[in-house]
Amino acid sequence: MKILVVEDDRKLAEFLKKGLQEEHYTVECAFTFEEALDRTHFSNYDLFIIDINLPDGDGFTLCRRLRDKGIQSPILILTGRNTVKDKVKGLDSGADDYLAKPFAFEELLARTRALLRRADKTVKALEYGPIRLEENKKRCYINGKEINLSPREYALLRYLLENQGMVLSRTQILNAVWGYEHDPGTNVVDVHVRNLRKKLKVHSAEDLIKTIRGFGYILE
């Protein structure tokens, strides 16, 4: 299980990292709002532990941004604020649990285990033919075998699965997966489709993504 700790207090972040690693979790740390978002572009996480007070933003907004990106992994908020109002705000922002500072590491560990167990029991999946995407774990399986996708490849395949049987233009894909409008000078969609097909080819599934000349792509 891979955890991202988002905490600007480096001493506390390293303490949490060491303690969680001793429990056999894989742990990475981000010390700012933007660093946390950047890491989600290149890595998938099973759990986020987020401090509310960050130097370039706040944890509430970060929770919303993660959910807006379609990330369903559980979020545990850490904060020195212990009012009911702040707890409600955190949960309404997309967090799954809330732990006030100071806290005992044993309690954080127990909440971590509970959140990960809960996530395992509520696997959200998209399926088409031999392809299965497990949304909360951000994992892809072809005929039951896991294949490694980058976060962008995963987002591209998810968008195709969500719109299976529909022709999707490059502009639609750019907007949905990259978040910007059509740029006639970029071939980023074609490059990522080609890379995705190569990975699907290993499991004889590359033909599921078809090119519709002059229009775009379709999964069928």
Characterise this structure:
With 220 residues, the chain is an alpha/beta fold. The chain folds into 2 domains: 120 residues, Response regulator (Rossmann fold); 93 residues, Winged helix-like DNA-binding domain superfamily/Winged helix DNA-binding domain (Arc Repressor Mutant, subunit A, Orthogonal Bundle). 43% of the residues lie in helices and 24% in strands. The chain has 8 helices and 14 strands. The strands form 4 sheets. Strands 2-1-3-6-7 form a 5-stranded parallel beta sheet, sandwiched between helices. Strands 8-9-10-11 form a 4-stranded antiparallel beta sheet, covered by helices on one side. Strand 1, helix 1 and strand 2 form a beta-alpha-beta unit. The two termini are 33 Å apart. The mean pLDDT is 87.
Q: List how many beta strands DSSP finds.
A: 14
Q: What's the total helix number?
A: 8
Uncertain runs:
none
CATH topology label of the largest domain: Rossmann fold
CATH class of the largest domain: Alpha Beta
Structural class based on helices, strands and sheet pairing: alpha/beta
Mean pLDDT: 87
The biggest beta sheet reads: 5 strands, parallel
**Order of adjacent strands in the largest pleated sheet:** 2-1-3-6-7
Compute the CA-based radius of gyration.
19 Å
Distance between the termini: 33 Å
Instruction: Give the name of the CATH superfamily of the largest domain.
Output: Response regulator
